[in-house]
Design a protein that fits this description.
This protein is α+β, with helices and mostly antiparallel strands and 369 residues long. It is built from five helices and 22 strands. Among the domains are: 45-59 and 285-367, conserved putative lor/sdh protein from methanococcus maripaludis s2 fold; 108-169, Helix Hairpins, CATH 1.10.287; 204-278, Beta Barrel (Elongation Factor Tu (Ef-tu), domain 3).
């Protein structure tokens, strides 16, 4: 190669270098700075499309399952008030009786005679007192004798009351209205005050006792509704209410005793039945959001709230999950808007645009998110 051609080639290379040095920004598509440098793109500055849901408020109430045993509203074992021979049994198993109905009689010959004698004594004492009171003004009878006659009449009346009480105790009567059980004695039996002759139950309302764990005792309220089922009547559900609540937690079992009242007008339930009980427990009200709105980072759970067109990070504690919603302990108000779709592009203060789900999905495909 000639020297002239070499010099020409060298001059061309120098020109290329100079152009690249001074005009390289234009040559490589830059306008000062590194590739991709400069202000934010139009897409990055645009509001992020999001789908929102309103905050609701719900209770953290729970449903307690327990097992209880039924007892009659009033139930007694029947015992006579005196000893003697049974002369009549006036009830049968399953009989409905009213308060005061006679159920059993004992022999009462001696008691009837005692009543008759007491009445005779009263008549005699009354007549004596009347004679003394008529004779007293003439001085034939002293004042002290009149007082003694009056005292004897009072004592005779007390003796009659005692005799009538002893006679009444020869008859056993129903203490309240209810249904009698199987008679345990027969006519002719000799019984004492310790002989049980039968049972009586008032089961128009059945009471069911059960235990509530200490952790749920706060949620039990007087009059609270509950539902019951029993293995004795499969497929049937009964309703009742909390009738009584114990005054203290048992220190051994750590439970609270509760008694439910269940109407039993149709007499389908019996004392002694076992019941499965479902009792809704009262609770506090907390914000509730869709589960997909809850996000997590190193500091814990949070949601994105939309406030004045921008994203706001609100930290929360998760209390309960149910049916796609989450109960939160967080500074949220009913009607606040929380983001359920589009959370990937959010940061505190980022402008947002509330749109539909399809818009967020399309933006995610377009931006590669």
């Amino acid at each position: 190669m000639s020297v002239a051609r070499q010099l020409a080639l060298l001059a061309g290379l120098v020109a290329v270098v100079v152009v690249g040095w001074f005009g390289g920004d234009t040559l490589f598509g830059r306008e000062g700075g590194e590739p991709g440098a400069g202000g934010p793109s139009e897409e990055a500055a645009a509001p992020a499309p999001v789908v929102v849901e309103e905050v609701r408020f719900a209770s953290d109430a729970a449903v307690l399952d327990a097992v209880g045993t039924g007892i009659a509203r009033a139930a007694v074992e029947l015992y006579p008030q005196a000893a003697g021979r049974v002369t009549a049994v006036r009830f049968r198993a399953g009989q409905e009786v009213a308060a005061g109905d006679p159920l059993l009689r004992l022999d009462a010959d001696a008691e009837e005679l005692a009543v008759a004698l007491a009445r005779v004594n009263i008549d005699a004492a009354r007549q004596r007192l009347e004679r003394y009171e008529r004779a007293a003004p003439s001085g034939a009878v002293s004042t002290s004798e009149v007082d003694t006659a009056r005292t004897e009449l009072s004592a005779a009346r007390i003796e009659l009351a005692q005799a009538e009480l002893a006679l009444r105790r020869r008859t056993l009567v129903a203490p309240f209205a209810g249904v009698t059980g199987i008679p345990e004695v027969d006519v002719g039996d000799r019984i004492t005050e310790s002989t049980m002759v039968g049972t009586l139950d008032d089961r128009d309302v059945l009471l069911v006792d059960f235990e509530v764990p200490e952790a749920f005792a706060y949620g039990v309220a007087q009059g609270g509704e509950l539902t019951l089922t029993t293995w004795a009547r499969p497929g049937e559900t009964f309703t009742g209410e909390v009738a009584s609540i114990g005054s203290r937690i048992d220190e051994v079992s750590r439970t609270l005793r509760v008694r439910a009242a269940v109407p039993n007008d149709d007499d389908r339930l019996r004392p002694g039945m076992s019941f499965s009980i479902r009792l809704p427990l009262a609770g506090e009200r907390f914000p509730s959001v869709p589960s997909i709105a809850v996000q997590w980072d190193r500091e814990g759970a949070f949601v994105w709230r939309v406030a004045e067109g921008a994203a706001e990070q609100v930290f929360a504690s998760v209390l309960k999950r149910a049916e796609g919603w989450v109960l939160l302990d967080a500074p949220l108000a009913a009607g606040d808007l929380v983001v359920v779709e589009g959370v990937q592009r959010l940061r505190p203060g980022r402008a947002v645009e509330v749109v539909g789900s399809e818009v967020v999905a399309e933006a995610g495909v377009r931006r590669g998110t």
